[in-house]
Amino acid sequence: MLISCLYDNKPCDPNNFFQQKSFYFGNCFTFNSGKNLTGHSIPVLNSKRPGMVNGLKLKLFIGAPEYQPCWEDRYGALIVVHNRTVPPLYVEEGLFIQAGSETNFILNKVTINKLPSPYSNCVANVSYRNEFDSESYRSAFDLSGSYRQKWCILNCSYFKATQDNILLCSSFNFTSSFERSKSLNNLENLANYYDVCFPECPIECDYSYFNIFKSVSSFPSYSYSQFLLANRSFRLRYPYENVRLEQVRNSVVSFNAYFDSSNYQKIDEIPESNFESLLGTLGGQLGVFLGVSFLSFAEIFEILFEILLIFMNNRKRVINNE
């Protein structure tokens, strides 16, 4: 499957990938997860600089199109970009890349820091199994040793869909677990359970995601196709002798993923007002009102003084007239 692999302009090999199984997509391989194909821990690779040269560059053989499973209605590869500390969500976050093309994913990381209670109901400590009192929360935590809301909602939706349709599906007498699972997905849309599962699956206070900008070009070129066919091990991947250039184009993909800069976007929630700003606001308001009150109090003396002057002037006039 792997034709070539480069990361940080250095060669990588199948031992840098960790294999997982997906119900929808079969074999899935995670690069730089800290585990190799056998599940043993290996050092995590780091890229020192941004740019295409220092990112991940893969060339993959995805199989001869004539020998794809008959139930598949698409052809290509699925890519999920995620933090290595959390498991991938293939259906919810995956992006397809097409055969016969080179696809570039230009990445920009965004980190969100939300305020915990009393400002929100987010989960502050995702590494603690009993941080939130919910069976769906604990089930999602048990999947990877850490909590993630999307995992929780997906797991909760599967569970509720299964419970609601288990009797109906069992009456169909399907011959395999694949057909039974397929019937569940066809009978009930999992999105119908999202509103029910949201109260059981709070959002994390600290989480991150990747903004992905995508560009595509044709691949492989005529000369590179000839280079691939000159490799005997590559030709043996096909179940027939005479391999045409068009067949090569329809069975390979090229994929590049890299950051466009060393910076990332960080969004922090802050209180609109805290105790210090509240005291400052109250002090300002009191200052204004007290200032007005003192002015009003001085005006009373001024009025009394003017009344007294008027009275004295009128008295002098009366004496002069007499």
From TrEMBL:
Its main location: membrane. GO terms for molecular function: ligand-gated sodium channel activity. Keywords: Ion channel, Ion transport, Membrane, Sodium, Sodium channel, Sodium transport, Transmembrane, Transmembrane helix, Transport. The chain crosses the membrane at residues 286-311. InterPro entries: ENaC (IPR001873). It is found in: Membrane. It is a multi-pass membrane protein. One of its GO terms (cellular component) is plasma membrane. Belongs to the amiloride-sensitive sodium channel (TC 1.A.6) family. This is Uncharacterized protein. It comes from Brachionus calyciflorus.
